[in-house]
Amino acid sequence: MSELFQAVEAPANPNIPELRPGDSVRVFIRIKEGNSERTQEFRGTVIRVGKGGNNANFTVRRIASNGIGVERTFLFKSPRIEKVIVERHAHVRRARLYYLRGRTGKRSRLKTKFTA
Amino acid sequence: MIKGLLGKKLGMTQIFDELGVAIPVTLIEAGPCYVTQIRTVGRDGYSAVQLGFEEVKPKRLTGGELGHLKRNNLPPLRFLREFRAEDPGVAEGDKITVDQVFAPGEKVDVTGISKGKGFAGGVKRYHFRGGPKTHGQSDRWRAPGARSSGTTPGRVFKGSRGPGHMGNRRVTVQNLKVVLVDGERNLLGVRGAVPGPRGGLLMIKAARKQVVRSVE
Predict the structure, then answer these.
(1) How far lies B202's CA from each of A43, A52, A76, A97, B168, in Å?
(2) CB-CB under 8 Å, A54 with B16
(3) Chain A residue closest to B20 (CA)?
(4) pLDDT at position A1 over 70
(5) Is A107 within a domain?
Protein backbone atom coordinates (compact mmCIF):
# COMPACT_ATOMS: atom_id res chain seq x y z
CA MET A 1 0.00 0.00 0.00
CA SER A 2 2.72 2.46 0.89
CA GLU A 3 4.48 1.84 -2.41
CA LEU A 4 1.33 2.91 -4.20
CA PHE A 5 1.42 6.17 -2.27
CA GLN A 6 5.02 6.68 -3.24
CA ALA A 7 4.04 6.17 -6.85
CA VAL A 8 2.11 9.44 -6.87
CA GLU A 9 4.63 11.37 -4.84
CA ALA A 10 6.12 14.32 -6.66
CA PRO A 11 9.89 14.26 -7.16
CA ALA A 12 11.90 16.16 -4.57
CA ASN A 13 12.99 19.64 -5.59
CA PRO A 14 16.77 19.54 -6.01
CA ASN A 15 16.96 23.27 -5.26
CA ILE A 16 15.69 22.85 -1.70
CA PRO A 17 18.45 21.83 0.71
CA GLU A 18 17.73 20.04 3.97
CA LEU A 19 16.08 22.52 6.30
CA ARG A 20 16.18 22.62 10.09
CA PRO A 21 14.29 24.73 12.58
CA GLY A 22 16.15 27.98 13.21
CA ASP A 23 17.62 28.26 9.72
CA SER A 24 17.60 31.70 8.17
CA VAL A 25 16.34 31.14 4.66
CA ARG A 26 15.41 32.89 1.47
CA VAL A 27 12.56 31.19 -0.36
CA PHE A 28 12.03 32.03 -4.01
CA ILE A 29 8.47 31.46 -5.16
CA ARG A 30 7.19 31.62 -8.72
CA ILE A 31 4.14 33.82 -8.94
CA LYS A 32 1.84 33.99 -11.91
CA GLU A 33 0.24 37.35 -12.64
CA GLY A 34 -1.91 37.20 -15.71
CA ASN A 35 0.37 35.83 -18.36
CA SER A 36 3.70 36.85 -16.91
CA GLU A 37 5.58 34.94 -14.28
CA ARG A 38 7.92 36.44 -11.74
CA THR A 39 9.83 35.28 -8.71
CA GLN A 40 9.11 36.58 -5.25
CA GLU A 41 11.40 36.24 -2.31
CA PHE A 42 10.32 35.43 1.22
CA ARG A 43 13.05 35.78 3.78
CA GLY A 44 12.85 34.66 7.38
CA THR A 45 13.44 31.95 9.97
CA VAL A 46 12.27 28.37 9.68
CA ILE A 47 10.15 27.73 12.75
CA ARG A 48 8.74 24.34 11.82
CA VAL A 49 9.50 21.46 9.46
CA GLY A 50 6.72 18.97 8.81
CA LYS A 51 7.02 15.61 7.10
CA GLY A 52 4.49 13.56 5.18
CA GLY A 53 5.09 12.71 1.54
CA ASN A 54 3.47 15.20 -0.77
CA ASN A 55 2.27 17.21 2.20
CA ALA A 56 5.76 17.77 3.65
CA ASN A 57 6.02 21.45 4.51
CA PHE A 58 7.96 24.08 6.38
CA THR A 59 6.92 27.36 7.96
CA VAL A 60 8.97 30.51 7.66
CA ARG A 61 8.48 33.46 9.98
CA ARG A 62 9.61 36.95 9.21
CA ILE A 63 9.05 40.35 10.74
CA ALA A 64 7.37 42.62 8.20
CA SER A 65 7.02 46.37 8.41
CA ASN A 66 5.85 47.88 11.71
CA GLY A 67 7.11 44.82 13.54
CA ILE A 68 4.26 42.62 12.41
CA GLY A 69 5.16 38.96 12.28
CA VAL A 70 4.25 37.12 9.07
CA GLU A 71 4.35 33.34 8.79
CA ARG A 72 4.08 31.44 5.58
CA THR A 73 3.96 27.69 5.09
CA PHE A 74 5.46 26.18 1.96
CA LEU A 75 5.10 22.69 0.55
CA PHE A 76 8.42 21.02 -0.12
CA LYS A 77 7.09 19.30 -3.21
CA SER A 78 5.33 22.32 -4.67
CA PRO A 79 6.47 23.06 -8.22
CA ARG A 80 5.99 26.76 -7.46
CA ILE A 81 9.05 26.91 -5.26
CA GLU A 82 12.03 27.83 -7.38
CA LYS A 83 14.76 27.46 -4.81
CA VAL A 84 15.61 27.88 -1.15
CA ILE A 85 18.86 29.34 0.10
CA VAL A 86 19.98 28.72 3.67
CA GLU A 87 21.93 31.72 4.91
CA ARG A 88 22.85 30.38 8.31
CA HIS A 89 21.93 27.76 10.86
CA ALA A 90 21.06 28.51 14.46
CA HIS A 91 21.58 26.62 17.67
CA VAL A 92 18.08 25.73 18.83
CA ARG A 93 16.92 23.22 21.38
CA ARG A 94 13.47 22.40 20.11
CA ALA A 95 11.80 21.33 16.89
CA ARG A 96 9.01 23.90 16.87
CA LEU A 97 10.13 27.46 17.51
CA TYR A 98 6.72 28.80 18.42
CA TYR A 99 8.24 30.72 21.31
CA LEU A 100 9.54 33.22 18.77
CA ARG A 101 5.99 34.44 18.27
CA GLY A 102 5.94 36.02 21.68
CA ARG A 103 9.28 37.72 21.26
CA THR A 104 10.35 40.87 19.51
CA GLY A 105 13.59 42.71 18.86
CA LYS A 106 16.78 41.48 20.44
CA ARG A 107 15.02 38.77 22.41
CA SER A 108 13.97 37.06 19.20
CA ARG A 109 17.53 36.47 18.04
CA LEU A 110 18.86 32.96 17.70
CA LYS A 111 22.43 31.89 18.30
CA THR A 112 24.24 31.18 15.06
CA LYS A 113 25.64 27.71 14.69
CA PHE A 114 28.99 27.59 12.92
CA THR A 115 29.64 24.41 11.05
CA ALA A 116 32.90 23.36 9.51
CA MET B 1 -17.44 -1.05 -22.66
CA ILE B 2 -19.12 -0.79 -19.29
CA LYS B 3 -18.17 2.22 -17.20
CA GLY B 4 -17.77 0.51 -13.87
CA LEU B 5 -15.11 -1.01 -11.69
CA LEU B 6 -14.58 -2.39 -8.21
CA GLY B 7 -11.79 -1.07 -6.03
CA LYS B 8 -10.34 -0.74 -2.62
CA LYS B 9 -9.83 2.57 -0.84
CA LEU B 10 -6.16 3.14 -0.06
CA GLY B 11 -6.36 6.54 1.57
CA MET B 12 -5.93 10.21 0.84
CA THR B 13 -2.98 12.29 -0.23
CA GLN B 14 -2.46 15.35 -2.36
CA ILE B 15 -0.89 15.81 -5.75
CA PHE B 16 0.07 18.88 -7.75
CA ASP B 17 -1.61 19.80 -11.01
CA GLU B 18 0.11 21.54 -13.91
CA LEU B 19 -0.45 24.95 -12.30
CA GLY B 20 1.26 23.83 -9.12
CA VAL B 21 -1.96 23.73 -7.10
CA ALA B 22 -2.13 20.96 -4.53
CA ILE B 23 -5.36 19.01 -4.96
CA PRO B 24 -6.79 16.56 -2.42
CA VAL B 25 -6.91 13.07 -3.88
CA THR B 26 -8.24 9.72 -2.73
CA LEU B 27 -6.24 6.82 -4.05
CA ILE B 28 -8.15 3.70 -5.02
CA GLU B 29 -6.69 0.35 -5.94
CA ALA B 30 -9.11 -0.23 -8.82
CA GLY B 31 -9.22 -3.62 -10.38
CA PRO B 32 -8.17 -5.70 -12.12
CA CYS B 33 -11.73 -6.96 -12.30
CA TYR B 34 -13.05 -10.01 -14.08
CA VAL B 35 -16.36 -10.30 -15.86
CA THR B 36 -17.93 -13.16 -13.96
CA GLN B 37 -21.36 -13.12 -15.54
CA ILE B 38 -23.47 -11.20 -18.02
CA ARG B 39 -27.12 -10.72 -17.16
CA THR B 40 -29.41 -10.43 -20.13
CA VAL B 41 -33.02 -9.31 -20.43
CA GLY B 42 -33.93 -12.59 -22.08
CA ARG B 43 -32.69 -14.76 -19.25
CA ASP B 44 -32.58 -12.59 -16.15
CA GLY B 45 -35.12 -9.85 -16.92
CA TYR B 46 -32.52 -7.08 -16.84
CA SER B 47 -29.15 -6.45 -18.35
CA ALA B 48 -26.07 -6.03 -16.22
CA VAL B 49 -22.49 -7.09 -15.88
CA GLN B 50 -21.25 -8.93 -12.83
CA LEU B 51 -17.69 -8.06 -11.92
CA GLY B 52 -15.38 -9.85 -9.52
CA PHE B 53 -12.50 -8.31 -7.61
CA GLU B 54 -9.64 -9.31 -5.33
CA GLU B 55 -8.12 -12.72 -5.69
CA VAL B 56 -8.15 -14.88 -2.56
CA LYS B 57 -7.22 -18.38 -1.50
CA PRO B 58 -9.73 -20.94 -2.74
CA LYS B 59 -10.56 -21.98 0.83
CA ARG B 60 -11.99 -18.54 1.56
CA LEU B 61 -14.90 -19.20 -0.77
CA THR B 62 -17.78 -21.65 -0.64
CA GLY B 63 -18.08 -24.45 -3.13
CA GLY B 64 -20.91 -22.65 -4.89
CA GLU B 65 -18.89 -19.49 -5.33
CA LEU B 66 -15.96 -21.47 -6.69
CA GLY B 67 -18.20 -23.33 -9.10
CA HIS B 68 -19.69 -20.06 -10.35
CA LEU B 69 -16.22 -18.70 -11.12
CA LYS B 70 -14.96 -21.97 -12.55
CA ARG B 71 -17.46 -21.75 -15.40
CA ASN B 72 -15.24 -19.10 -16.98
CA ASN B 73 -11.96 -20.44 -15.59
CA LEU B 74 -11.57 -17.44 -13.29
CA PRO B 75 -9.47 -17.29 -10.11
CA PRO B 76 -11.21 -17.24 -6.70
CA LEU B 77 -12.53 -13.71 -6.13
CA ARG B 78 -13.66 -12.18 -2.86
CA PHE B 79 -16.19 -9.68 -4.13
CA LEU B 80 -18.86 -9.98 -6.82
CA ARG B 81 -20.97 -6.94 -7.71
CA GLU B 82 -23.29 -6.12 -10.58
CA PHE B 83 -23.29 -3.01 -12.72
CA ARG B 84 -26.34 -2.18 -14.83
CA ALA B 85 -25.40 -1.93 -18.50
CA GLU B 86 -27.65 -1.97 -21.55
CA ASP B 87 -24.72 -2.59 -23.85
CA PRO B 88 -22.04 -4.50 -21.93
CA GLY B 89 -19.36 -4.56 -24.63
CA VAL B 90 -17.48 -7.25 -22.71
CA ALA B 91 -17.60 -11.03 -22.59
CA GLU B 92 -17.65 -13.38 -19.64
CA GLY B 93 -14.14 -14.14 -18.46
CA ASP B 94 -12.72 -10.81 -19.61
CA LYS B 95 -10.18 -9.03 -17.44
CA ILE B 96 -10.78 -5.31 -17.01
CA THR B 97 -8.17 -2.80 -15.84
CA VAL B 98 -8.55 0.85 -14.86
CA ASP B 99 -7.00 2.39 -17.95
CA GLN B 100 -9.53 0.55 -20.12
CA VAL B 101 -12.46 2.08 -18.27
CA PHE B 102 -11.57 5.53 -16.97
CA ALA B 103 -9.46 8.43 -18.16
CA PRO B 104 -8.31 11.56 -16.32
CA GLY B 105 -10.83 14.40 -16.46
CA GLU B 106 -13.91 12.18 -16.40
CA LYS B 107 -16.50 12.40 -13.64
CA VAL B 108 -17.37 9.33 -11.58
CA ASP B 109 -19.72 8.30 -8.79
CA VAL B 110 -18.13 6.30 -5.99
CA THR B 111 -20.19 4.02 -3.73
CA GLY B 112 -18.97 2.51 -0.49
CA ILE B 113 -20.04 1.53 3.01
CA SER B 114 -19.55 4.49 5.34
CA LYS B 115 -17.69 4.19 8.63
CA GLY B 116 -19.98 3.04 11.43
CA LYS B 117 -20.48 5.57 14.22
CA GLY B 118 -22.63 3.39 16.49
CA PHE B 119 -25.66 4.79 18.31
CA ALA B 120 -25.22 8.53 17.85
CA GLY B 121 -27.12 11.45 19.32
CA GLY B 122 -28.98 14.07 17.36
CA VAL B 123 -26.15 16.61 17.53
CA LYS B 124 -23.69 14.31 15.79
CA ARG B 125 -26.16 12.59 13.51
CA TYR B 126 -28.28 15.47 12.23
CA HIS B 127 -26.36 18.54 13.43
CA PHE B 128 -28.94 19.49 16.05
CA ARG B 129 -27.71 22.50 17.96
CA GLY B 130 -28.14 21.06 21.45
CA GLY B 131 -29.13 23.14 24.43
CA PRO B 132 -27.53 26.18 26.08
CA LYS B 133 -24.19 25.56 27.73
CA THR B 134 -24.56 28.32 30.32
CA HIS B 135 -27.23 30.26 32.25
CA GLY B 136 -27.63 27.64 34.92
CA GLN B 137 -28.29 24.76 32.54
CA SER B 138 -27.19 21.29 33.33
CA ASP B 139 -27.45 18.06 31.35
CA ARG B 140 -28.87 19.89 28.34
CA TRP B 141 -25.80 20.52 26.17
CA ARG B 142 -26.47 17.91 23.58
CA ALA B 143 -30.16 17.32 24.17
CA PRO B 144 -32.35 16.90 21.07
CA GLY B 145 -35.11 19.26 22.30
CA ALA B 146 -38.75 18.52 21.50
CA ARG B 147 -39.49 15.61 19.18
CA SER B 148 -42.92 16.81 18.12
CA SER B 149 -45.95 19.01 18.92
CA GLY B 150 -48.34 18.68 21.90
CA THR B 151 -51.71 16.98 22.30
CA THR B 152 -52.23 17.32 18.58
CA PRO B 153 -51.02 15.10 16.98
CA GLY B 154 -50.05 13.46 20.30
CA ARG B 155 -47.45 11.23 18.68
CA VAL B 156 -44.13 11.47 16.92
CA PHE B 157 -44.31 11.28 13.15
CA LYS B 158 -42.52 8.37 11.59
CA GLY B 159 -39.20 9.30 10.06
CA SER B 160 -38.57 12.15 12.51
CA ARG B 161 -34.91 12.82 13.04
CA GLY B 162 -33.48 11.74 16.34
CA PRO B 163 -30.73 9.69 17.93
CA GLY B 164 -30.00 6.31 16.42
CA HIS B 165 -27.52 4.25 14.47
CA MET B 166 -25.25 6.32 12.30
CA GLY B 167 -22.96 5.30 9.50
CA ASN B 168 -22.22 1.76 8.24
CA ARG B 169 -24.60 2.18 5.34
CA ARG B 170 -24.26 2.47 1.61
CA VAL B 171 -23.24 5.97 0.56
CA THR B 172 -22.59 7.31 -2.92
CA VAL B 173 -20.53 10.40 -3.63
CA GLN B 174 -21.38 11.85 -7.02
CA ASN B 175 -19.35 13.70 -9.63
CA LEU B 176 -15.83 13.14 -8.42
CA LYS B 177 -13.23 14.10 -10.98
CA VAL B 178 -10.72 11.49 -12.05
CA VAL B 179 -7.28 13.02 -11.73
CA LEU B 180 -5.03 10.01 -11.99
CA VAL B 181 -5.13 6.70 -13.82
CA ASP B 182 -2.25 4.25 -13.67
CA GLY B 183 -2.99 1.02 -15.49
CA GLU B 184 0.30 -0.55 -14.53
CA ARG B 185 -0.32 -0.17 -10.80
CA ASN B 186 -4.12 -0.45 -11.02
CA LEU B 187 -4.28 2.95 -9.40
CA LEU B 188 -7.13 5.43 -9.65
CA GLY B 189 -7.09 8.87 -8.07
CA VAL B 190 -10.24 10.95 -7.63
CA ARG B 191 -10.50 14.48 -6.34
CA GLY B 192 -12.11 14.58 -2.90
CA ALA B 193 -13.18 12.06 -0.28
CA VAL B 194 -14.97 8.75 -0.74
CA PRO B 195 -17.03 6.80 1.81
CA GLY B 196 -15.68 4.13 4.08
CA PRO B 197 -12.51 3.14 5.86
CA ARG B 198 -9.19 2.47 4.19
CA GLY B 199 -9.32 -0.98 2.69
CA GLY B 200 -13.08 -0.75 2.15
CA LEU B 201 -14.70 -1.98 -1.04
CA LEU B 202 -15.75 0.72 -3.50
CA MET B 203 -17.89 0.66 -6.61
CA ILE B 204 -16.83 3.21 -9.18
CA LYS B 205 -19.22 4.16 -11.96
CA ALA B 206 -19.49 6.86 -14.59
CA ALA B 207 -21.27 9.88 -13.11
CA ARG B 208 -25.05 9.70 -13.46
CA LYS B 209 -25.67 13.40 -13.14
CA GLN B 210 -23.23 15.27 -15.27
CA VAL B 211 -23.28 19.02 -14.69
CA VAL B 212 -25.03 20.46 -17.71
CA ARG B 213 -23.79 23.91 -18.58
CA SER B 214 -26.32 26.20 -20.25
CA VAL B 215 -25.57 26.96 -23.89
CA GLU B 216 -25.18 30.68 -24.49
Answers:
(1) 46, 26, 32, 43, 13
(2) yes
(3) A79
(4) no
(5) no
